[in-house]
Amino acid sequence: MSGVSIGLRVAKTDENEYGWNLVNDIPADGPCVVYLGGSGATTDQAANSYAGDVEREITATVGQKVPIYSVKYDFSGSDADFARRYEFMKHRQEHSSEELELIKAKVTPEEINPKYIDELYKKLIEPRIFNTRTKKLLPMDEACRRLRMMTFVAHCHGAYVALKLEDKMQAEMKKAGCSLEDRRAIQSQMMILAHAPACPLGIANSQMISFKTVYDTDLPQVSNWFNHYVSKRRYEEKRRFLAEQEHKEDGIKKFRWFDFKPCYFGKKQGNLFMIKNAFKWNEEDGPWMINTDEHNRVDYNITFDHTQEGKIMTWYRKAILYNAVQNSLENQGGYKPLPSLEKLILPPVKELHEKYKTFFAQMAENGKEFRKEVCAYVVVGMKRSRTECGK
Predict the structure, then answer these.
(1) CB count, 10 Å around CB of 255?
(2) In what order do the strands lie in the sheet with 263-265?
(3) Average pLDDT, integer, range 250-276
(4) Secondary structure of the chain in the HEC alphabet?
(5) Which of 15, 116, 154, 297 could form a disulfide with 159 if both were Cys (CB 3.0 to 4.6 A apart)?
(6) Other CB atoms within 10 Å distance of the CB of residue 29
(7) 100/107: higher pLDDT
(8) So what's the pLDDT on residue 85?
(9) pLDDT band for position 79 (50/70/90)?
(10) What is the model's pTM?
């Protein structure tokens, strides 16, 4: 049976070299950040490294000490990859295939509803929305206020965990007699900043804001039209690079560079910020370069190897984290709802607000244009499939 441990980021000492203390529970009425790491967060050191990234950024910008917790997983009896694949199929974001039918046949009850999700819900969410003594749901505004003081940051598998927590939360509120309207209002105050999310996008009732790159080849890919098109364009670009290197005119004419502009895809597509690559390629390998940083670098530091787009994406991530934490601190004095995405993306320096707004608007337009490309690709693909089926 799977399980989970939660640790609090603390000062490092000779006795505590990682600066991470296991805790049994989290105070239910106070600001905090909870990091839901990737499936590799199965050790104290791995879980704590995620918390360290957030601590350094909050210390640098917020200027106030905020408790930061991170999660360590125990996947005993559960295959995290199977669990994620099942979730994609459940939400119809994966094409049917023989392989997927085998996964459906093999998936276990533990992978459908992992026990560690129930454990996390009991420790993180339930005390924020229920009266622990009477077991009754708190008044809506109070439940919203308490939940809003908890900011989630997720990486890869952690975004799947956040969605499963949302499912559990909705089921428990419904069981308690909470109306649909109130459930939606409370859920809307669950804030998740998701790096390279390995989960279905566009289905969250929480405020999940996601970031990923085209050349993140470590992110588990699902089989859908969007990813098919992105993969096709990556392949074309790699062939074009080789053709240029080898001065082959036929390849240069046949294959295109992938001119992917920074995009924002709206709520139905997961509040997704997407760029081509966050880190520079070396000259010899170009798009063939395998850089695990595209998936694993989830800190908030700008370094020499960032592309300009990588810097921009980091700036937006920093702004969102800053504003989410600031809002959680403000909820200590009464309920203040989570700001809109348009306000969350604005940095602390007000003189930069117009610049951020303008570029965000351009990213949204880029996202719409790219979706048109994908739709055109789908139409051609569907026509080809019908023609082949008719032979």
Answers:
(1) 19
(2) 20-23, 3-9, 68-74, 32-36, 150-155, 191-195, 207-213, 272-275, 263-265
(3) 96
(4) CCEEEEEEECCCCCCCCCCEEEECCCCCCCCEEEEECCCCCCCHHHHHHHHHHHHHHHHHHCCCCCCEEEEEEECCCCCHHHHHHHHHHHCCCCCCCHHHHHHHHHCCHHHHCCHHHHHHHHHHHHHHHECCCCCCECCHHHHHHHHHCEEEEEECHHHHHHHHHHHHHHHHHHHCCCCHHHHHHHHCCCEEEEECCCCCCCCCCCEEEEEEECCCCCCCCCCCHHHHHHHHHHHHHHHHHHHHHHCCHHHHHHCCCCCCCCEEECHHHCCEEEECCCECCCCCCHHHCCCCHHHHCCCCCCCCCECHHHHHHHHHHHHHHHHHHHHHHHHHHCCCCCCCHHHHCCCCCHHHHHHHHHHHHHHHHHHHHHHHHHHHHHHHHHHHHHHHHHC
(5) 154
(6) 12
(7) 107
(8) 83
(9) confident
(10) 0.94
